[in-house]
Amino acid sequence: MQKHTYNVIGLMSGTSLDGLDIAFCKFEFLSNLKWNWEVLNSVTKNYAESLKYKLSESKNFNGLDLHTLDIELGKWMGESIKDFIAENKLNVDFIVSHGHTVFHVPEKQLTLQIGNPNFIHAITGKPIISDLRSLDMAKGGQGAPLVPIGDALLFNEYDFCINLGGIANLSYENEENNRIAYDICACNILLNALANLKELEYDNKGRLAKSGNVIKSLLKEWDDFSFLKKKYPKSLGIEQIEPEILSKIDKEKYKIEDMMATAIEHIASQISKTLISAKKEGKILKILLTGGGAFNDYLIERLQSKLDEKYELMVADDKTVNYKEALIFAFLGVLNVRNEWNTLASVTGAHTNSISGQKLGDF
Fold this sequence. Notes:
With 363 residues, the chain is an alpha/beta fold. Helix content is 38%, strand content 23%.
């Protein structure tokens, strides 16, 4: 008989290198695709500086060094989760790990997430599901985004879900009741890179950006990024962002605050254009904002200024803002063990839906 309640740990290590998000979540199946859910315990584990540096440079590693890092990260993740379980006295059914993305090149059907799941399984003693993207890519999909099935089943009271993470992305149901989702533009990857020039991890509430002035020539360069003109399905990786976006940062030529203001303008413009182009009907359109960028008051202010009153921006509660991706990855694992679709072809462009994820241990 199939279970109706699941206690699962979801893991997310994002491209902005903010740390490892660990979320212990409870999911309860009600009926007719309805779910109750709750993030019961959560923590973000910061990387040691040496590990953070290796992750930032991993795309340049040779095969041996990359595999060594895969194991190092898997061991560190395993120990972090083992401590988290013990400290909170948790009864965990299984773990779902997205891993840390090194490469994501859909046109070559290539994606790689490290953080070896064998070591997480061995250290924690818990079953684990990992490798959430590869099957979809083998079916001709982008392998991304993965979050929309969670948006559809856990956050369906919203007209749009926008995650302001390292990369900003969008998810919504179109007029034909198909879930549509895709990456919009670089977000915290760009904002944090600029904050780092001030020896800050991030620009608190966007205050520095608000003090700057938009550089029109730089804004045009960022807005001319060819990815922005592509039709969905599409997904964005650091391989595209570095040469097309980050390479334009020039602290010798521009004031850092002015580049920050320009980055905010670029991101707000791209998101607003995307929302307006969706042409979704409704007197009021509720838009859920999550991810670290949802704490950037100036970004939200500039985004709202570009939308009319029918677009209602709603910042999620702190737990959902910080742990939505970890929550939904945990949920993808629940759908996997229930033998239900957890990756949508309407989103990724694959030729069929998938039940994605590789299992280790006894479920």
